[in-house]
Amino acid sequence: NCQLFSALKDPSVVIMSNWLKIRGTLKSWTKLWCILKPGILLIYKTPGSDHWVGTILLNACKLIERPSKKDGFCFKLYHPLDKSIWAMKGPKGESVGSITQPLPSNYLIFRAASESDGRCWMDALELALSCSSLSKMSAKSGRDGDLSGSSESSHILQLLQISLHQHTAERVHIRCNAAGEASQVETVSEENKGLIWTLLKQLRPGMDLSKVVLPTFILEPRSFLDKLSDYYYHADLLSQAVMEESPYSRMKQVLRWYLSGFYKKPKGLKKPYNPILGEMFRCCWLHPQTDSCTFYIAEQVSHHPPVSAFYISNRKDGFCITGSILAKSKFYGNSLSAILDGKARLLFLTRDEEYIITMPYAHCKGILYGTMTLELGGKITIECEKTQCYTEIEYKLKPFLGSSCNVNQISGKIRMGEDVLATVDGHWDSKVHLTEKRTGQQEVLWNPGPDIRRQRLKRQVVQVDQQEAFESERLWQHVTRAIKDKDQMRATQEKFVLEEAQRQEARERAERPWNPRLFTFNTDTNEWHYKYTDTKPWDPERCLLQFEKDGVIQTKEKSRRRSFSYSQNWAAQQKVSPTGSYSTPEPNHESSDNEGQSSSHTQTQLHSKS
């Protein structure tokens, strides 16, 4: 609280700032620059501070979401008793604002450019409103406290003190403990909130988090390249999709596989490591039913902007996937927004069908005020040009005044050309229903219950001590160990060592372009492509890894070659862990669904868990 109150006296603290459209009494929109500070919202004609329009006293306001018929996201600030929400003077003592058109006295309607931006504004306004309550408590405990500082800071504090006498209602935050939401909430310790406040004062609102050194306590102890592999624990659904006779049945099965990639999530709210340039992650999943294997390899091909390229292949079952993701994470004071900009191309080899797939964005709120909550939002598409089959799914954020049943909702349609074949609705982390449009028949499309979780394919990862230096698990092993030991100071130090080495490498490389080892950029399509799609996956002489048909895995490390094997007798493997020098199929990540059972990498034992 002391750090928060000291921030109120710091004129450099800006929770959020950006352009917003504001509707006046003439019901026309004006684009204005808005700066949100603790307790107040400053409005200007331009990003400079020379053309002040007005100052809204937030703790005299209520905040609600407004439905929007057009693109963007609308919200409304209003006084519950229809009194004025405006301050009499500006931050520098101005008495007349540069108003371009008449503005209402007791409310204001705003339009953000997108839903994610609008949600971040609402979360930030929640934080700014709560700052007023803290200021009130601090003012009561010490009215003669130090209010010195710049003239702008003094004016802002005076506005806060005046408005506090006008509005005395206490804001109460209600924490929802419904099952669907409980796994996605987390309470942050006061010590860690202090670290975030320190971080907040060093950031510009809307700054790209890929350029920011984050506190290690909000990190999930694995690389983003590793996290992208979560979509393939049910890759056998794609093996089944290839076999379906009708385009509609194949699309249903592809959608079922797509939904299978979301329910596995870490306990609480965590962000994976930002991969180091040149970092690589590789693994595979054995399919006991088809006696095949799905191979996965990913590489960080660019650092600024941060781009991760990946390639997945199961030629025996007839599918492969290629794509890249530009991860854009932005910090908005009380919110984080993570947008995965990119697409994946799923190819059914025997049918010559390509499905282009996009991703939702992640929205985390309550970092400083309230309960930390993670949601997914936005519209995603799965489109096959050859069959004209098209799926659109909307991931819905919880409404501002919504109940727990509104958490993690999705809805959508499957079309064939212009005809709607089926509708989809449910919750992405639990049950999803599909309803046939023609017959009205309903079926469960996806439900990740205990039976489904037991059917997860076993993931194989190369033993850490046999990985190359720039493979994810080996590269981050000291940071990971420190985080798991809950030693945040050591984790921060180890993370700094890696990041400083990357900065030093960039300085030495100077203007020379970085050349990825496994992927090449196609300037015609603006996409990254795996270099060796026409050869046997991961040829050892070209890309360091080969999965042989007889179960022997060979890696090349400098001039030495190591080989080791795993048992292919899957029936026996379900009863007894086979010997071999292969690592655990699934890394030991603490999971919200209690799947993170204790396991370790060993030289002689392969541990399996569902």
For this entry, give a set of tags.
14 helices; alpha+beta; PH-like_dom_sf; 7-stranded antiparallel sheet; single chain; phosphoprotein; 610 residues; Oxysterol-bd; transmembrane helix; 15-stranded antiparallel sheet; disordered C terminus; lipid-binding
Structure description:
The chain is an alpha+beta fold and 610 residues long. Helix content is 22%, strand content 31%. Strand 12 and strand 13 form a beta hairpin. Helix 7 packs antiparallel against helix 8 and helix 11 packs antiparallel against helix 12. The C terminus is likely disordered. Belongs to the OSBP family. It comes from Cyprinus carpio (Common carp).
Gap between N and C termini: 44 Å
Estimated structural class: alpha+beta
Q: Quick check: average pLDDT?
A: 74
* Secondary structure: number of strands: 29
Strand content: 25-35%
Helical segment count = 14
Low-confidence residue ranges: 141-191, 536-610
Largest sheet data:
15 strands, antiparallel
- What is the CA-atom radius of gyration, in angstroms? 27 Å
**Approximate helicity band:** 10-25%
Shape: globular
Describe how the helices and strands are arranged:
Layout: H1 2-8, E1 16-23, E2 29-37, E3 40-44, E4 52-57, E5 62-66, E6 73-78, E7 107-112, H2 115-141, H3 151-166, H4 179-182, E8 185-186, H5 190-200, E9 219-223, H6 224-227, H7 236-243, H8 247-259, E10 271-273, E11 280-287, E12 292-302, E13 307-314, E14 319-331, E15 335-348, E16 353-357, E17 361-365, E18 372-384, E19 389-396, E20 409-416, E21 419-427, E22 432-436, E23 442-446, H9 450-454, E24 459-460, H10 472-475, H11 477-484, H12 488-509, E25 519-522, E26 527-530, H13 540-543, E27 545-547, E28 552-557, E29 560-565, H14 570-573
Parallel strand pairs: 9-10
Antiparallel strand pairs: 1-2, 1-7, 2-3, 3-4, 5-6, 6-7, 8-18, 11-12, 11-24, 12-13, 13-14, 14-15, 15-16, 15-17, 16-18, 17-18, 18-19, 19-20, 20-21, 21-22, 22-23, 25-26, 27-28, 28-29
